[in-house]
Write a structure and sequence with these properties.
Layout (H helix, E strand, L loop, with lengths): L1 E4 L5 H15 L16 H6 L3 E8 L2 E11 L11 E9 L8 H15 L5 E3 L6 H9 L14
Parallel strand pairs: 4-5
Antiparallel strand pairs: 1-2, 2-3, 3-4
Keywords: Acyltransferase, Ribonucleoprotein, Ribosomal protein, Transferase
GO molecular function: acyltransferase activity, transferring groups other than amino-acyl groups
Pfam families: Acetyltransf_1
Length: 151
């Protein structure tokens, strides 16, 4: 397997991965609209100096992705000036359970450290127990749970 930075030539495959993420998240979020959804401006992320998009290749096929994006905290009372937000984590279904997500996490965390960023965050649906366990195993801890109510 090869872990590498994404390029503009990867865009079409990454758009397919984005829809895979949307499909995986639909059972956890009844507020998502029907049809195709685009969470990310993937070309912008690929070109940005403030972001790092990774892909994993096996036999010249892209099988996984993830990104780290430098963000500033929404408040002025955090003990850090910026953090790396991780997202776009996707592994093709037939390649899951092989430790590929850990390769992505390691690459993104390494990039963040190379930028002197020590705070790393991500979002995961609380009901997505397998993802929560995987991130906890990688060293993440729960910080905040978003609650909602439909009236």
């Amino acid at each position: 397997m090869i872990v590498r930075e994404a390029t503009e030539q990867d865009h079409k495959v990454l758009l397919e991965f984005e829809q895979g993420i949307v499909s995986a998240e639909r059972p956890f979020n009844s507020t998502l609209i029907a049809g195709e959804i685009h969470y990310y401006d993937l070309l912008h992320l690929i070109k940005s100096d403030e972001a790092f998009v990774l892909v994993v290749e096996e036999n010249n096929e892209i099988i996984a992705s993830g990104y780290a994006l430098i963000r500033k905290p929404a408040n002025n009372y955090s003990n850090f000036e910026q953090y790396a937000y991780l997202g776009f984590m996707y592994v093709k279904p037939e390649h899951r359970g092989k430790g590929i997500n850990k390769l992505i996490l390691d690459g993104l965390i390494s990039w963040a450290k190379s930028r002197d960023i020590s705070e790393i965050r991500l979002d995961v649906y609380a009901q997505n127990e397998s993802a929560v366990k995987a991130y906890e195993k990688a060293g993440f801890e729960s910080l905040l749970v978003t609650m909602r109510m439909k009236t």
